Amino acid sequence: MTRIVRTVAELRQQVRAWKAASEQVGLIPTMGALHDGHLSLIRLAQTKVARTVASVFVNPKQFAPHEDFDAYPRGEARDAELLETVGCDLLFAPNGAEMYPEGFATSINLTGVSEPLEGAARPQFFGGVATVVTKLLIQAEPDIAVFGEKDYQQLQVIRRVTRDLDLPVEIVGAPTARAEDGLALSSRNAYLSPEERAAAVALPNAMKAAIASVQAGERVEAAEAAGKAALAAAGFRQVDYFDFRDADDLSRLGPDALNGAKARLLVAAWLGKTRLIDNMGV
Ligand code: AMP
Questions:
Q1: Which of 18, 233, 255, 280 is 20 to 30 A from 46, alpha carbon to alpha carbon?
Q2: What are 209-251's pLDDT values in tens digits?
Q3: How far is the CA of 281 from the centre of ligand 1 (A)?
Q4: Is the CB of 58 inside a 6 Å radius of any atom of ligand 1?
Q5: Which of 148, 107, 149, 98 is nearest to 126 (CA)?
């Protein structure tokens, strides 16, 4: 049975008991509304450590006031059932007051890799993510923590934070789980109408086409422009970015070619009221 705990004290007691029995522990932080992408992170953790802890907390600090905090899908009973099917050992499901008690006044400030892309589109996002993830890592004291490449910039930010703050944990990145048509699985896909869901396949398709065209020698800027045009033609109402970037620090690439740099294509675009993000290696 996947045991559910709601307090840091219970979480630590369980994790410390496992460690005392020489069992390594993996943490998989989530915001719930679990899908196969989340479950793939737990399965990956299970290949590396004996015990897995999933956290489910819809973190208010990473949403701006106009964003979808209230609408974000929630369903603890279903989440717990899914965790049970993959043999996750513990679900940590704190409430808001457990994470941010009255008077909470501390946050993590970031520069560098957090600044472009999602950082530019959502100015308070990574500060909120870094604050809650740092808390979760200190609360759970895991040996490893698994994060999805689906949120590639977030993964790079968390790697940076754990290095900068000397947090004693190994950060593991997991490949993006996709639906059969190629759309990355996401809790926010639940917002899409059937028509929008059908149109959404244009996102991974435009990305694959852009990667193929730069690999065939097309200029980066031209491939980015063609990708944005393809999304507009498929009914996306706004593209926040469709950028080839350095895969490590997410800085801009030279205009003409990939120049042998390790590159990543990162995209955020709006389909109706839903903002979809995706990324692929080049
Ligand atoms: P979220 O609940 O959306 O905050 O995501 C929790 C964790 O699951 C993050 O590390 C995400 O990157 C990861 N994740 C979300 N969707 C996917 C996916 N389709 N494939 C792999 N990992 C994912």
A1: 280
A2: 999 999 999 999 999 999 999 999 999 999 999 999 999 999 9
A3: 17
A4: no
A5: 107
Are the beta carbons of 40 and 167 closer than 8 angstroms? no
Question: How far is the centre of ligand 1, averaged over its atoms, from the C-alpha of 103 (Å)?
Answer: 30
Tell me the per-residue pLDDT of 47-73, one tens digit each, with 9 for 90 and over.
Answer: 999 999 999 999 999 999 999 999 999
What domains sit in the chain, N to C, each tagged with a CATH number?
Answer: 3-174 (3.40.50.620), 187-281 (3.30.1300.10)
Work out which ligand 1 atom sits closest to the CA atom of 147: 10
Active site residue 35: no
Q: Is 204's C-beta closer than 6 angstroms to any atom of ligand 1?
A: no
H helix intervals, the chain: 8-20, 36-46, 76-85, 96-99, 118-121, 125-140, 152-164, 194-199, 202-215, 220-233
Asked if 132 and 98 touch (Cβ cutoff 8 Å), the reply is no
DSSP 184: B
Angle, nearest 10°, between helix axes 125-140 and 152-164? 60
Q: Is 118 in the pocket of ligand 1 (CB under 6 A)?
A: no
Best mutation site among 57, 151, 162, 274 for ligand 1 pocket (most ligand atoms within 8 Å of CB): 151
pTM above 0.70, yes or no: yes
Q: What burial letters (b/e) apply to 140-150, b meaning 16+ CB within 10 Å?
A: bbbbbbbbbbb
Three-state DSSP state, 59: coil
**C-alpha of residue 135 to centroid of ligand 1, in Å:** 18
> Which numbered atom of ligand 1 lies nearest the CA of 178?
19
Ligand 1 pocket check for 38: Cβ under 6 Å: yes
Tokens representing 54 are: 């999933």
